[in-house]
Structure formats: structure tokens, C-alpha cells
């Protein structure tokens, strides 16, 4: 993971917080992106939110929980379902170490 404004030694264990709104989802690993933090994830659950426009996607990122808040339109376009393998993308400025 790349963390903005926090030079860290490679391999150092780190605990960090990521807001669900700062996580985007992709069907494939897109190395030609400005978003450098990309993690393979598995969809655990799709949860309705209190707004008609969004859903919360519960993800497993290598044994670590991760949430993504996306639009229902994006959910439908990606045809998301539990068990599906995806890539989560997190901008480095969104990672709070």
C-alpha cells in the first residue's frame, strides 16, 4: 500500500483505515491507472443503504475486511454477486495510517 505523506519502509506492518466511499471496484487489475493501491478482493455481501442510490459492498481482502460504497448503477453494471472476485482500488491520499 502507498500512503500519502508517510514514508514507510517496505515490508513494515501497518494498520490503516479506509473509508468505504474511497474504495472503487474493477473487474480486472488495471495497472494503467493513477490509482496505485489495488487489492484482489472477494465479494462477501451486498447491503442496501439508507439512500436509494447506493449499496455497501462487504469485501474480503486477503483475510482483512474492506467496505466499498458504490452506486446501484455500478453494482448492476459490474453484475456484482457474493463470491465474485474483483479488484479494489484505493487512492493513496485516502489511506489514513
Automatic annotation (TrEMBL):
This is Mop domain-containing protein. It comes from the Bacteria. Residues 32-97 form the Mop domain. The lineage of its organism: Bacteria, Pseudomonadati, Pseudomonadota, Gammaproteobacteria, Pseudomonadales. Keywords: Molybdenum. It comes from Pseudomonas aeruginosa. Transmembrane segments: none annotated. SUPFAM superfamilies: MOP-like. One of its GO terms (biological process) is molybdate ion transport.
Amino acid at each position: 500500500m502507498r500512503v500519502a505523506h508517510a514514508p514507510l519502509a517496505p515490508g513494515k506492518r501497518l494498520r490503516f483505515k479506509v473509508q468505504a466511499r474511497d474504495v472503487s471496484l474493477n473487474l480486472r487489475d488495471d495497472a494503467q491507472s493513477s490509482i496505485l493501491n489495488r487489492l484482489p478482493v472477494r465479494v462477501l455481501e451486498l447491503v442496501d443503504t439508507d439512500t436509494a442510490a447506493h449499496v455497501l459492498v462487504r469485501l474480503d481482502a486477503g483475510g482483512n475486511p474492506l467496505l466499498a460504497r458504490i452506486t446501484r448503477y455500478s453494482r448492476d453494471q459490474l453484475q456484482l454477486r457474493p463470491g465474485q472476485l474483483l479488484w479494489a482500488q484505493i487512492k493513496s491520499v485516502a489511506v489514513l495510517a
